[in-house]
Input
Amino acid sequence: MIVIRVLLAEDQHVIRGALAALLNLEADLEVVAEASDGAEAVDRALALRPDVAVMDIDMPRKDGLAAAAELRARLPACKALMLTAHGKPGHLRRALDAKVQGFLLKTAPPEELAAAIRRVASGERVLDPSLAVTAWDLSDNPLTPRERDVLALAAGGAEPDEIATRLHLSPGTVRNNLTAIITKLNARGRTDAVRIAAESGWI
Output
């Protein structure tokens, strides 16, 4: 019997421990590494070379989708299966753009997760059935990479002068970017733009 080696990345220790215990009950699955953030997931995957990386999207330091994109470039043999608490269209778009092999809601039963890992390991792509309709109706992120960076810093509470310093831009450029963002998202202001972009998974 071929045993599928799994890396499990989830920032909530209790959830990670429960998932690891459940997966290790499967005769053909072995959790060979655990990580609490995306950066650690990449490091552990490069060291241990698992067959499948099961990663939460929302993690500190580096989110699961950024980690999946890096693994695709540096360790293409490792397949990525993303877990999320909510199927934000923007997250699904980023997952498809990153060419991850699977996208599953955390509410999926354990046997469904185990089956998804097996399918991903065999080369199939897996999409949670409840997200199938969303996949057909994805709106593209209207923000440029720079606008995403500006809005992400604004979401963290940074003011235009601080954003300008951190991104090596002029304060005027930052203000222009914020105006463009608000216009593109049809938002009422900066706070509303942050809300819209976060709910869409664009930042």
In short: The radius of gyration is 18 Å.
